[in-house]
Amino acid sequence: MALVSDPAPLPETIDDVIELISQDGDYFERMGADGKIMQCLFCEWAGPRLITEWHIQNEHIHKIETCTKPDWNITMTLGSLVGKRKWCCQIIDYHNEHYVLAAKFLEPDCLMANLMTLSSDDSMKSGSITVYNRVTGEPFSWSGNINSVPDQLPSENHAQLSVPLSKLNLLPNSANLTLINGAFITKMGNKVVVGQPELDDIQITFFSKIFIGR
Known about the structure:
alpha+beta; Apoptosis, Tumor Necrosis Factor Receptor Associated Protein 2, Chain A; 2 domains; five-stranded mixed beta sheet; four-stranded antiparallel beta sheet; globular
């Protein structure tokens, strides 16, 4: 009589299924050959979109904030944006949908931001991003359709919101300052703010809103 071995235990949840798939190197290689690889927003990990979404929600849960209203504000430091190759991202969980605010600074004077959804679906969503001049309160805004996060975050040429940093009055006399190599420099070449600790004290708040029913 032939011996019949016990069947392998079945995964109990969708998370178990995804974790098993994420450990299948051959599957990852086949998906890569099909050009369906998505880069993680926070680390060098990459995989199929569904697996990458699961990876982000489990491995970078500290980057996800829950919000009960369709508008929120996210504060980042200038130090976290300066000299970084990757976009600086924060995820908002609103009604079990994950929205991504991605920001980046491009020397010498360009602050950029994008609002996206983490999951891809067919429903149309729209929203806005606004930053304010710290002294006058003048708003700088973008509003429009919200698309899903692409496999690779957009280049500097595809920012939804693009604002000259000098227009935000983050520092006294900032209109006459240029940020180069981590230092604010006057038109005369004098350095005013130098180094990471000082840049980490300069905060930028992004006000985002999801337009319901549009």
